[in-house]
Write a structure and sequence with these properties.
4 helices; mainly alpha; single chain; 105 residues; 60% helix
Length: 105
């Protein structure tokens, strides 16, 4: 139980650091567990909802623009691979979880 609590706090700290300082933030090692991922996403959601003023307007505008982009379900995976390649990555790890919909063949 203590390990899970530590992972959750670590994930929340990582999300806050990324939100405040961007990708240059020093974040803890990601244990790649569902608890860590869920806690980080939950913290991002809280941060998103509490974003004030013009920054919120910018983020809302970006979200609206994103809805008008390519809707192919596999497009996100292609973007991840392309971004990793652009950064010269030699390895890319990702996880996929079904949400009850079938992906195209």
């Amino acid at each position: 139980m203590i390990l899970k609590t530590n992972q959750i706090e670590s994930a929340r700290d990582a999300a806050r650091a990324l939100w405040e300082r961007g990708i240059s933030a020093e974040i803890p090692s990601d244990p790649r567990t569902p608890e860590f991922a869920n806690a980080a996403l939950s913290e991002f959601e809280n941060l998103w909802e509490s974003t004030p003023g013009i920054l919120r307007d910018v983020l809302d505008g970006a979200e609206i623009g994103a809805t008008q982009l390519d809707v192919d379900p596999m497009h996100g995976l292609a973007e991840l691979v392309q971004n990793a390649d652009d950064l010269g990555a030699s390895e890319l790890k990702m996880g996929i979880r079904s949400r009850g919909t079938d992906l195209p063949p």
